[in-house]
Amino acid sequence: MKILIVDDSKPIFMMVSQMLKELGHDPIWAEEGQKAIQVLSEHPDVSLILLDWNMPVMNGLEFLQLNKEDKFFDHPIVMMTTENSPEKIQAALECGAADYIMKPFTSDILQSKIEMVIDMM
Ligand SMILES: [Mg+2]
User: Fold this and answer.
1) pLDDT digits (tens, 9 = 90+) for 48-72
2) What are the residue ranges in the chain where pLDDT is below 50?
3) Which of 40, 73, 77, 99 has the lowest CB atom count within 10 Å?
């Protein structure tokens, strides 16, 4: 499954990318939300997005808000976040995030989260 990782941190991309490859997935990268929209137009076969919260240019919540209006991506979006405030998580879910995953996470947690949101579709 092609999975788009949207995160401004290259080390985090490399770590998550390695986990996804070991789980048999095909990860690609965008550094922030604006870039993610461009990457999605070039890769219409992306099945899931792992979305960081804090990023320059367009952050994760702004990306979700735009997608809620424009619906350019209709597969699951999972927020990767260090934010554990219930209000922020609620805001992300209301803007269309399928679920969230707290950083740092293990490969097992990532796998179970991916299976869960794909089953929900
Ligand atoms: Mg970040």
Assistant:
1) 999 999 999 999 999 999 999 999 9
2) none
3) 99
Q: Which two tokens stand for residue 8?
A: 């401004």
Q: Ligand 1 centre from 80 Cα, in Å? A: 9
Which residues place a Cβ less than 5 A from the ion ligand 1?
A: 8, 52, 54-55
Domain spans in the chain, listed from the N-terminal domain onward: 2-116
pLDDT at residue 93, as a whole number: 94
pLDDT for position 34: 98
- CA distances from residue 115 to 53, 56, 76, 80, 96 in whole angstroms, order as listed: 21, 29, 11, 16, 18
Q: How far is the CA of 54 from the centre of ligand 1 (A)?
A: 4
Give distance in angstroms: CA of 10 to centre of ligand 1.
Answer: 10
What distance in angstroms lies between residue 96's CA and the mean position of ligand 1's atoms?
Answer: 19
Ligand 1 center to 24 CA (angstroms): 25
The overall longest dimension of the chain from CA atoms, in Å, is 35
What is the CATH topology of the domain spanning 2-116? Rossmann fold (3.40.50)
